[in-house]
Design brief:
heterodimer, A: about 525 residues, alpha/beta, Rossmann fold, GMP Synthetase, Chain A, domain 3, eight-stranded mixed sheet, 15 helices, B: about 100 residues, mainly alpha, Non-ribosomal Peptide Synthetase Peptidyl Carrier Protein, Chain A, 6 helices
Chain lengths: ~525, ~100
């Protein structure tokens, strides 16, 4: 099965059912199918060939959903870029995977126009809203809808790549996770199975589609023939709470930061959430105190605590009836996935309670990172059985005697904040671009709402007059919002190892928030 | 009208009587300072949506609400945390003006 067939099969079953609610519009399956077919025909006409990359650089919108399926129908690979990404990183990604066609909007055009001359593979830019610019590279999204609504010939097979999802890399540059149709279909099947989704489900998604957790809400809903209500963000909490009630939402995927903000609302118990069948949480550990409060406010709603990584989408889920028994666990392997822990010598751990690195076997495991053979050799290694490679997650866990996992730590120093993974190196690289900064180190410090907040510790040139505000301003111009340090501490010098390297280990011990 | 024209660094009025211009200017200063970090390169019109402009994130909304409650001595209910009340300088000003019972002339 191919990912685009999620839509195509549901069109046959429910052509006139509402598939997508977004920006005050309600679109049926057939409307989305027709628009995606037209876009696919346009993309083919514009020169997109099989397995060519086309990127979507848009806020959550109808156009972004149509684009996902349009690109797949044209036998291409879709790459969703976080709309907060700034020009330098955008340029890196567009060049890294040689994006040929970019779909964006007027608001983001500014970020693109400065880097376009540096992106030699980029042939066309499609603008999703009004296009007043006089540039032969630019096309209007609405013009693509004039192309035939007949489904173009698609010669993809399920080992072809469907998507590249960029994730933070420890070197500072993002890495493109290569996912085949088979990877994505397998992950969707497993998740739909344990969430027991049916075509009666109505899902509210306020997570960005550049985040696999948000993206899969669209893909899975289209697979099981439900309805997805797509919101831009969780910015105004009551707006979302109101949608949950009015749209009779049955499934609400969130991250712990959203839970923290949601729980700040004092009157949640007065709303009718009786239709809400489940809430899912992933990306960071859901603190037990939040679980207890959620259970009180949503007594009839199943709460799923889960764990995963972009490299295989999802690994575990905690069955809701286990929540009171093992609230600290992120659960057991999802259907059709096998997990085990290995010790420092790479041997499988048999004894419950022993800490080891989590390894994942399953058809959901990525094909690899785009163009990064060394990273692939580290992450995808021979596993339990001959002739196959398993995913070494880099996350340390304990397992109990019934194979439930308990998160311990990450092996690397990546920071998890507000559901996002941040590479300290990426933030440090930006800090070092500021002339007066001679040393910089970035760490995560505990934060009630964000999980971890980004803190930068820096040393300045002797007579520098640089202020913390100026540093934060520079970061906010060059980094996505969630990467901008919340705290800055200026020191004379940073702690170092005996070999003179800045030592993050010593650093976290002596840190003041 | 651009914020720049109203004047960055505006001194808060000491007067007891709050006018909507007064409210807007206070909000202006707060948002410029807190979320735009004094970045004068960003053009923020009174009618611009914070969501569209990507100016505030979820935790920023909490900070904005705290600021409004403390500065204007009002209590914001959960149901009032919607874009119609909060998503631009104009909307915020109207909302606060109504809350404190001042009728704009």
């Amino acid at each position: 099965m191919l990912v685009n067939e999620f839509l195509e099969k549901s069109v046959k079953r429910f052509p006139n059912k509402i598939a997508l609610v977004s920006q005050n519009k309600r679109l049926t399956y057939i409307q989305i199918e027709n628009a995606a077919n037209s876009l696919a025909n346009a993309l083919i006409f514009y020169g997109l060939h099989k397995q060519d990359r086309a990127a979507i650089y848009l806020e959550n919108s109808i156009e972004s959903v149509i684009s996902i399926f349009g690109i797949l129908k044209a036998s291409g690979i879709f790459v969703i870029i976080n709309p907060q990404v700034k020009s330098k990183k955008l340029e890196y990604m567009l060049n890294d995977c040689q994006v040929k066609i970019l779909i964006t909007d007027t608001k983001h055009l500014e970020e693109i126009s400065s880097i376009m001359p540096n992106c030699s593979h980029l042939k066309k830019v499609i603008i999703a809203d009004e296009n007043k610019h006089d540039n032969s590279l630019l096309y209007k999204f609405e013009d693509t809808l004039k192309y035939p609504i007949t489904r173009p010939l698609n010669n993809s097979i399920d080992m072809d790549l469907a998507s590249l999802i960029y994730t933070s890399g420890s070197t500072g540059n993002p890495k493109g996770v290569m996912l085949t149709h088979l990877n994505m279909v397998s992950a969707a099947n497993s998740i739909i199975e344990y969430l027991e989704n049916t075509n009666e489900d109505i899902i509210l998604n306020c997570l960005p589609l550049s985040f696999d957790y948000g993206l899969y809400q669209i893909l899975m809903t289209f697979k099981f023939g439900g309805t997805v209500v797509l919101e831009r963000s969780f910015l105004y909490p009551y707006h979302i709470i109101d949608k949950v009630v009015k749209e009779k939402i049955t499934g609400f995927p969130i991250v712990p930061t959203i839970v923290a903000i949601l729980l700040k609302n004092k009157n949640l118990d007065k709303y009718d959430f009786s239709r809400l069948r489940y809430i899912t949480s992933t990306a960071q550990v859901l603190p037990v105190k939040y679980i207890i409060q959620l259970q009180k406010i949503f007594p009839n709603t199943k709460i799923y605590s889960m764990y995963g990584l972009t490299e295989c989408k999802r690994v575990t889920y905690l069955p809701p009836d286990e929540l009171s028994r093992r609230p600290n666990s992120v659960g057991k392997a999802m259907p059709n996935v096998e997990i085990y822990l290995v010790n420092g010598q790479g041997e499988k751990i048999i004894k419950p309670g022993e800490i080891g690195e989590l390894v994942v076997r399953g058809l959901n495991v990525m094909k690899g990172y785009w163009n990064l053979p060394e990273e692939n050799a580290k992450k995808l290694r021979p596993g339990l059985y001959p002739g196959e490679k398993n995913l070494f997650t880099g996350d340390l866990f304990k397992m109990d005697d019934e194979n439930y996992l308990y998160f311990v730590a990450r092996k690397d120093n990546m920071i998890k904040t507000a559901g996002e993974i941040v590479s300290p190196k990426e933030v440090e690289n930006i800090l070092y671009e500021i002339d007066d900064i001679i040393e910089a180190g970035v760490v995560g410090v505990p934060d009630e709402i964000l999980g971890h907040a980004i803190k930068a510790v820096i040393a300045l040139k002797e007579d520098s007059k640089l202020t913390k505000e100026e540093i934060i301003l520079y970061c906010s111009k060059n980094l996505e919002k969630f990467m901008v340090p919340k705290y800055i501490e200026i020191r004379k010098q940073l702690p170092k190892t005996s070999t003179g390297k800045i030592s993050l280990k010593n650093f976290t011990k002596t840190l003041k928030i | 009208m651009y914020i720049e024209e109203i004047g960055w660094g505006f001194e808060m009025a000491r007067s007891e009587k709050k006018t909507d211009i007064d409210i807007k200017q206070k909000l202006n200063v707060f948002i410029r300072d807190k979320f735009l970090l004094g970045n004068k390169g960003v053009i923020l019109n009174d009618y611009d949506s914070f969501l569209d402009k990507g100016i505030i994130d979820s935790t920023g909304v909490l900070e904005l609400v705290n600021y409004i409650e403390e500065t204007f001595g009002i209590k914001i209910d959960d149901e009032e945390l919607i874009p119609d009340n909060l998503d631009s300088l104009d909307k915020l000003t109207n909302f606060i003006t109504k809350k404190i019972g001042y009728v704009s002339k």
